[in-house]
Write a structure and sequence with these properties.
Layout lengths: L3 E6 L5 E7 L3 H20 L1 H18 L1 H12 L3 H26 L2 E5 L3 E9 L2 E5 L5 H15 L2 E5 L5 H14 L6 E4 L3 H8 L5 E5 L2 H14 L3 E4 L4 E5 L5 H13 L9 E7 L3 H14 L18 H16 L3 E4 L15 E4 L6 H4 L6 E7 L2 H8 L4 E2 L1 E5 L3 H10 L4 E4 L14 E2 L2 E2 L4 H7 L1 E9 L1
Helix pairs in contact: 2-4, 2-6, 3-4, 4-5, 4-15, 9-10
């Protein structure tokens, strides 16, 4: 008898939403074989024809975006207004990929004289195994699959076991769009299915998720001698300097930390504030959090919904409990809301933080913000760098020269200056250290899913 994967609603005491059949080893092997068989024909269609085919898929996504948003809301707890917004953002990414593919993938002439010309061509890698998490179901799918398909790769795709019904909607969309068989092949399940996918005959791994799993993906890629594109989260610092316009930046800090209940890889996860502004910033953030509504994500008045799953709540609680036991102060929050049943956690501000606390050392995937003070720019930079991660960073100051200096000093892949999270399809997304390898999106993302070939010829 086939095993099933049960989907639950984290906002309503984990009530059952539905179930899907977990993919067997035979299913996974068959998916990889279908992708391998389909890839040469998909490549041979050329960019123009692939773009034309994929526009049909985007049309289906646009027509059914409300259905996808509702499933995001119910299955992983994203408040419905945010779920709708992330669908629109994902569609923007698809539209950018399709509009700019030819320009990004055109040959690059590297040499020419009266006798010869040299060009570098971008060719598809082949078959991509794509594994993504649950926090942004449509965006994660889009980032992992979109540029691969446009570039001419075929895909074997595993979505998180927390959002399998969203995965089923994706399968339905591909079928409705009438795209060629074998270019997108989805498998379902948890870690065992992901591990089996790493053993298949593929040419590229694209992974978003934890550092622990990312290491295993990278090892599998090394064993196969194939490339791996890895995005493994972060513990992004945000530095508020003494001259910052606090009134102007507080909503941005709130958005950067608490959007999607704090379940964002490049969220602002450690706030570092100049000692002269510390009380002011903490007080302003406390006032903002008191004004926000924690509740059912299907209610349009809700600002902060639940975490995605019971296990995420349990991990967050142990991280906060560790901090409190070591002397941290919970200015606001620090517990589950008593009146709500599900994976809810109150938005939390923690002060009196020390470097041995888990909320400082680990990635915290929830609505919790540790805040520390600094006296000098050198100390601020040192605190910002005090992490094994290197995804992004945030800087808040009116001094452009200072902002540029600190941005260059941060060991990260992305820096926001006086901004909240502002991802764009044209910009690369990725980090350093335990935050991963390679960059998604933009021209750089297209090149990551391709192999480059030099062709030199006589004129």
């Amino acid at each position: 008898m086939a095993s099933t994967l049960v989907s639950t609603n984290p906002a309503r005491n984990y009530e059952k939403l539905g179930e899907v059949t977990i993919s067997t080893l035979e299913d996974i092997s068959t998916a990889a074989q279908k992708a391998r068989a389909a890839q040469p024909l998909w490549h041979a269609r050329g960019i123009k024809n692939r773009v034309a085919e994929l526009k049909k898929l985007v049309d289906v996504f646009r027509e059914r975006k409300d259905e996808f948003a509702r499933m995001t809301c119910r299955e992983m707890g994203r408040p419905i207004v945010g779920a709708e917004a992330t669908m629109d953002l994902g569609l923007h990414y698809w539209e950018w990929y399709l509009a700019h593919a030819e320009e990004c993938l055109k040959p690059c002439e590297t040499y020419r004289d009266e006798k010869e010309v040299a060009e570098v061509f971008c060719e598809p890698a082949g078959v991509a195994a794509v594994i993504v998490p649950w926090n942004f179901p449509f965006s994660n799918f889009t980032w992992g699959v979109g540029q691969n398909l446009v570039a001419g790769n075929t895909v074997v795709f595993k979505i998180s076991e927390e959002v399998p019904l969203f995965g089923k909607l994706l399968d339905t969309a591909f079928a409705e769009a009438g795209l060629p068989a074998g270019i997108f092949n989805q498998v379902y399940g948890g870690a065992e299915v992901g591990a089996a996918l790493l053993e298949q005959d593929v040419d590229l791994f694209c992974f978003t998720g934890s550092t622990e799993t990312g290491r295993r993906v990278y090892q599998a890629a090394t064993n196969k001698m194939i490339p791996a594109l890895l995005e493994m989260g972060g513990s992004d610092p945000g530095v508020v300097f003494a001259d910052a316009d606090v009134g102007r930046i507080m909503d941005k800090i709130y958005e950067a930390r608490f959007r999607n209940s704090g379940q964002v890889c490049n969220a602002l996860k450690r706030l570092i504030v100049h000692e002269n502004r510390f009380d002011e910033v903490v007080g302003a953030l406390e006032a903002i959090l008191k004004s926000k509504r924690v509740g059912d994500p299907e209610d349009r008045a809700t600002d902060i919904g639940p975490l995605c799953a019971r296990r995420q709540l349990a991990l967050l609680e142990t991280q906060v409990e560790d901090a409190i036991s070591k002397g941290a102060h919970a200015i606001i929050g620090g517990k589950r809301p008593a009146e709500l049943q599900g994976a809810y956690y109150e938005p939390t501000l923690l002060t009196n933080i020390t470097r041995d606390m888990r909320v400082w050392k680990e990635e915290v995937f929830g609505p919790v913000l540790p805040i520390v003070s600094f006296a000098t720019t050198e100390e601020a930079i040192r605190l910002a760098k005090d992490t094994t991660y290197g995804l992004g960073g945030y800087i808040f100051t009116e001094d452009k020269e200072l902002a540029d200096k600190v941005a260059r000093d941060m060991r990260v892949g992305m820096v926001q200056i006086n901004k909240s999270v502002g991802n764009r399809a044209c910009n690369p997304f990725g980090g350093r250290g335990l935050s991963g390898l390679g960059m998604e999106n933009g021209i750089f993302g297209f090149h990551e899913v391709c192999r480059r070939k030099l062709i030199t010829r006589e004129i």
